[in-house]
Design brief:
The complex is a heterodimer.
Chain A (H helix, E strand, L loop, with lengths): L3 E4 L2 E4 L5 E7 L5 E7 L5 E9 L2 E4 L6 E3 L9 E3 L8 E8 L10 E2 L3 E5 L1
Parallel strand pairs in A: 2-11
Antiparallel strand pairs in A: 1-3, 3-8, 4-5, 4-9, 5-6, 7-8, 9-10, 9-11
Chain B lengths: L8 E5 L4 E6 L9 E6 L6 E6 L2 E4 L4 E4 L5 E6 L8 E7 L16 E6 L1
The chains are: A mainly beta, B mainly beta.
């Protein structure tokens, strides 16, 4: 049981490049989400999904796209990377999509640097 | 959105009980209160969740008064390994009827020997 797996762990991009951050969970969780965490800051919600085929925007969605074609996978796409997107990205999942949960399981993060 | 307010940082010594209070004046009827712990270079880890009164597990206790406008995370007899950032979250229903989790800045707890 791997939990939430994020790849890659580290990535350096040039301004204007695009890439996809991968997130996969093997716990049959309905709910999945993406956060970014800047140095010394809390986590900010980018996008989330309450099930396959359903996504919605979080606090800071601009510059990012998501899709949820399967229960297991929730990739995050950076359309045209900018230095302001330099951050650590965390993917999380939960069995329940409602307010009462057993807690979100987080991946180990992807550290992205845009130069 | 229910917004939370926590102290930015706290210091403690090993063996002491630590209480971290979170203010959430705009909490909604259906909202639950959840606390997470985050170590450097790791994702947050679920600690405890509650709706009202008191909840206790093997790691911590959560105290919620009747008006639910605040909550207190209690860590008994902390050790050096409890040095981390602690986040208080309050649930919110997103546009598609889902659950939008909003993290605040958290409280940095530093445990000294």
């Amino acid at each position: 049981n791997a939990g939430v797996t994020q790849t890659p762990k580290f990535q350096v991009l040039k301004t204007g490049q695009s890439m996809t951050l991968q997130c996969a969970q093997d716990m049959n969780h309905e709910y999945m989400s993406w956060y970014r965490q800047d140095p010394g800051m809390g986590l900010r919600l980018i996008h989330y999904s309450v099930g396959a085929g359903i996504t919605d925007q979080g606090e800071v969605p601009n510059g990012y796209n998501v899709s949820r074609s399967t229960t297991e996978d929730f990739p995050l796409r950076l359309l045209s990377a900018a230095p302001s997107q330099t951050s650590v990205y965390f993917c999380a999942s939960s069995y329940h999509a409602g307010p009462e949960t057993s807690g979100y399981t987080f991946g180990s993060g992807t550290r992205l640097t845009v130069v | 959105l229910a917004k939370t307010t926590q102290p930015i940082s706290m210091d403690s010594y090993e063996g002491q009980e630590v209480n971290i209070t979170c203010s959430h004046n705009n909490i909604a009827t259906n909202d639950y209160i959840t606390w997470y712990q985050q170590f450097p270079s790791q994702g947050p880890r679920f600690i405890i969740q509650g709706y009202k009164t008191k909840v206790t597990n093997e790691v911590a206790s959560l105290f919620i008064p009747a008006d639910r406008k605040s909550s207190t995370l209690s860590l008994p007899r902390v050790s050096l390994s409890d040095t981390a950032v602690y986040y208080c979250l309050v649930g919110d229903m997103g546009g598609t009827g889902g659950f939008k989790t909003i993290f605040g800045a958290g409280t940095r707890l530093f445990v000294k020997a």
